[in-house]
From TrEMBL:
Cited SMART domains: PDZ
Gene designation per UniProt: LOC107736856
Compartment(s): Mitochondrion outer membrane
GO molecular function: protein kinase binding
Native source organism of the sequence: Sinocyclocheilus rhinocerous
Subunit structure: Binds (via the PDZ domain) to isoform 2A of SYNJ2 (via the unique motif in the C-terminus). Interacts (via C-terminus) with RALBP1. Interacts (via PDZ domain) with ACVR2A (via C-terminus) and ACVR2B (via C-terminus). Forms a ternary complex with ACVR2A and RALBP1. Interacts with MAPK12. Interacts with DLL1; enhances DLL1 protein stability, and promotes notch signaling in endothelial cells.
Protein name: Synaptojanin-2-binding protein
Keywords of this entry: Membrane, Mitochondrion, Mitochondrion outer membrane, Transmembrane, Transmembrane helix
Length: 155
């Protein structure tokens, strides 16, 4: 045996009872806000302390939610998935894919039932903005080196 069975993701089913603060976890993903490149799935971003999911103990950050109350989440937008969670009722049946390769988990998200921007998109925008600012600063620095008097103004 090569040990690959230990790395295979498993699919589990669970029912969570909605509490005063909802189901107690945040989600990311969707066809319009992919959390994992080339995967439009819906993932658990954060488990809220003392929420329904935390008290149950089976759902983990990074798990992929395959279905809610029998409704498959394939090819849904983030907002459509959020709406399914909002309208799922008090007892919510989840089909979840768990496994080591899914446990990298998101680090930024909002509460279930709220819209959330994709962490990857935010990161890329930030990187691009920082690159533009850095390039502009470098160009200004080089101009000052080539033309030091130009920076002193019309004296």
């Amino acid at each position: 045996m090569n040990g690959s069975a230990h790395n295979a993701p498993s699919v589990v089913e669970m029912t969570l009872k909605r509490g005063p603060a909802g189901l107690g976890f945040n989600i990311v993903g969707g066809v319009d806000q992919q959390y994992i490149m080339n995967d439009s799935g819906i993932y658990v971003a954060k488990i809220k302390e003392d929420g329904a999911a935390a008290l149950d103990g089976r759902l983990q950050e990074g798990d992929k939610i395959i279905a809610i109350n029998g409704q498959n989440l394939d090819n849904l937008s983030h907002s459509a998935a959020v709406e399914l969670f909002r309208s799922a009722g008090e007892d919510v049946h989840l089909r979840v894919q768990q496994g080591p390769n899914l446990q990298n988990g998101p680090t930024s998200s909002r509460a279930d039932g709220e819209s959330s921007s994709a962490f990857g998109t935010w990161t890329m925008c930030t990187v691009v903005a920082l690159a533009v600012i850095t390039a502009a600063g470098f160009i200004a620095y080089k101009r000052l080196q080539l033309h030091p008097r130009a920076s002193r103004g019309p004296f």
